[in-house]
């Protein structure tokens, strides 16, 4: 009996050992397998690899493999296809369908400037993940986060701020994440002709259109002729000059010509359009305008109708915001709720970059539904912040429910409440809080109305 039992134990040890070795093997090759799953599956049976446009995620390791095995890659793009010879494959390359006069902008991510996080590595699955980025990524202001689920890579969160080398974003169960940046490769823009005294926004297109780090600098050759602030060119005196547009991250430049026409009599115009029917709102509140800023009931008003001047810059979140937030944060902590500012003050220039980015991705019509035009973002007031996560998945979390019920006690309102988009101009944003002071916050909260309804003013872009 004893001998028999011992034998069984030895068998068990062997089984455990085999499983253990198998596990190590899986861990070692797990990532590699996930990344190259599609390519390898097709590689087994063919010397030509077909990749359709939604699967253009060809990793350097795959490219190395294809080169080593002298295989060709065929790319199918909207019904057209092109075959690329092995010798023409380069790591990190973009694919051009020259013969068809089409360019595929989707980047071929490479592992040198990207960072992969396996779901197994996410030990404590809270609603958000704070990740310290490796040095090649932490130097960027903005990164994009992709999620990898069932071998499919989709954009998870665009333009995540990098603060002190750390990116913070929401995570889902059983999902891998992939952090990268996409450099601006070139800038497109065209010449501008203006009458003296006029102003125009410089329109910029980025290549690739999904590039991150869209910050630009502008240098004017002759500042007596034109000036550029916040991406807008101002015509000062007649003549011609050149503006050099430069990408802050990649350094690529584009020169455009500015021509200013002489105007005999410059008619002085009210720069600010009359945006409301009278000087009172439909609910009888006075509309007060001071230095280009609108106030109703002593509240600074910023929405799609009312904007801030490009020069308005409190330099960060105001003291009254910070003090009130600290009081709320401490109270929430007692209820086991952790609150933090995910995105606070944004200056005019930041919004220029952000809005342009979204216009490039989705076009102006769709972009207007979720991103404010420059000057129209409440974040420029220094009285507004996105709490914890500006992401749809924030809705229904314990933090969101707590804020909805309690934030008014500390002087805040959920600025874009649910089902009020026809008044506010924005879909529900449970994370976007505006400081209005305790008294007004209570009034607004108890009314169940949005700020626009309560005071009776509009939120619509004029053009
Ligand atoms: Zn916001």
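Q: What amino acid sequence fits the structure above?
A:
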């Amino acid at each position: 009996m004893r001998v028999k039992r011992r034998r069984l134990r030895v068998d068990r040890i062997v089984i455990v050992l085999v499983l253990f070795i198998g596990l190590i093997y899986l861990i070692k090759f797990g990532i590699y397998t996930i990344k190259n799953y599609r390519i390898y599956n097709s590689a087994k049976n063919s010397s030509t690899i077909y990749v359709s446009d939604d699967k253009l995620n060809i990793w350097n390791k795959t490219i190395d493999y294809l080169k080593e095995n002298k295989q060709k890659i065929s790319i199918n793009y909207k019904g057209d296809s092109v075959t690329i010879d092995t010798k023409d494959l380069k790591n990190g390359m973009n694919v051009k369908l020259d013969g068809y006069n089409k360019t595929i902008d989707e980047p071929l991510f490479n592992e040198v400037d990207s960072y992969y996080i396996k779901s197994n590595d996410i030990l404590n699955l809270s609603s958000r993940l704070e990740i310290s980025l490796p040095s090649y990524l932490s130097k960027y202001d903005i990164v994009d986060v992709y999620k990898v689920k069932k071998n499919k890579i989709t954009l998870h969160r665009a333009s995540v701020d990098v603060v002190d080398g750390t990116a913070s974003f929401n995570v889902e169960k059983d999902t891998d994440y992939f952090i990268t940046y996409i450099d601006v490769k070139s800038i497109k823009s065209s010449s501008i002709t203006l009458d003296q005294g006029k102003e125009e926004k410089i329109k910029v297109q980025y290549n690739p259109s999904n590039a991150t780090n869209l910050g630009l600098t502008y240098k004017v050759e002759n500042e007596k002729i034109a000036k550029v602030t916040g991406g807008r060119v101002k015509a000062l005196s007649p003549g011609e000059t050149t503006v050099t547009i430069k990408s802050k991250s990649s350094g690529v430049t584009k020169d455009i010509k500015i021509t200013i026409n002489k105007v005999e009599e410059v008619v002085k115009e009210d720069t600010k359009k009359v945006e409301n029917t009278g000087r009172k709102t439909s609910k009888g509140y006075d509309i007060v305008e001071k230095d280009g800023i609108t106030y109703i009931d002593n509240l600074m008003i910023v929405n799609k109708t009312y904007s801030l001047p490009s020069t308005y810059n409190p330099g960060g979140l105001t003291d009254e915001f910070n003090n009130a937030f600290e009081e709320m944060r401490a109270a929430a902590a007692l209820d086991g709720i952790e609150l933090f500012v995910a995105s606070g003050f944004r200056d005019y220039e930041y919004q220029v970059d952000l809005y342009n980015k979204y216009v490039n991705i989705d076009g102006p019509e769709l972009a207007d539904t979720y991103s404010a035009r420059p000057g129209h973002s409440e974040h420029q007031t220094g009285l507004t912040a996105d709490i914890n996560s500006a992401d749809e998945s924030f809705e229904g979390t314990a933090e969101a429910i707590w804020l909805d019920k309690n934030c008014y006690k500390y002087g805040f309102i959920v600025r874009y409440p649910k089902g009020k988009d026809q008044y506010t101009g924005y879909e529900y944003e449970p994370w976007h809080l505006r400081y209005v002071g305790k008294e007004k916050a209570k009034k607004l909260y108890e009314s169940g109305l949005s700020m626009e309804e309560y005071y009776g003013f509009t939120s619509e872009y004029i053009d």
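Q: And what stands out in the fold?
A: The radius of gyration is 27 Å.
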